[in-house]
Write a structure and sequence with these properties.
The chain is 0% helix and 50% strand. By secondary structure, the protein is mainly beta. The chain has one domain: Jelly Rolls. The strands form 2 sheets. Strands 1, 2, 4, 5, 6 and 7 form a 6-stranded antiparallel sheet that branches. Strand 4 and strand 5 (80-84) form a beta hairpin. It is globular, with a radius of gyration of 14 Å. It starts with 25 loop residues before the first strand and ends with a strand.
Amino acid sequence: MTTTWARINLDEVDDMAPRFGMEAFGESRFLRDQVGAETIGASLYRIRPGARPGFGHRHAEAEELYVVLSGTGRIRLDEEVVDLRPMDAVRVAPPVMRELEAGPDGMVVLAFGTHVDGDAEMQPGWWS
């Protein structure tokens, strides 16, 4: 049964980076099931200084919005690289390949958008 609202502190959501061998990247906390969301997803990334996840990704249907909460870095969008600073928001259309990279002080990013099961395409080593 779906409730009409839910609250959780993002620090209480499991850090999934160790499960996927991504400790060098930082933290990845995926929030959807914990609040009973059906059509939206959200992720909190605490990216270590100079780190990238090691893969680009794109979607068939889901668009995403990335909001920099603190720190600086860059995002690669297909062949374009965009500098990021606190409070920057970047909307990314589904077919655009994307990957984040933290600056020298690290970066905290909240990403959210529509959720479509099986919608992501991953490309390891895309921004090498």
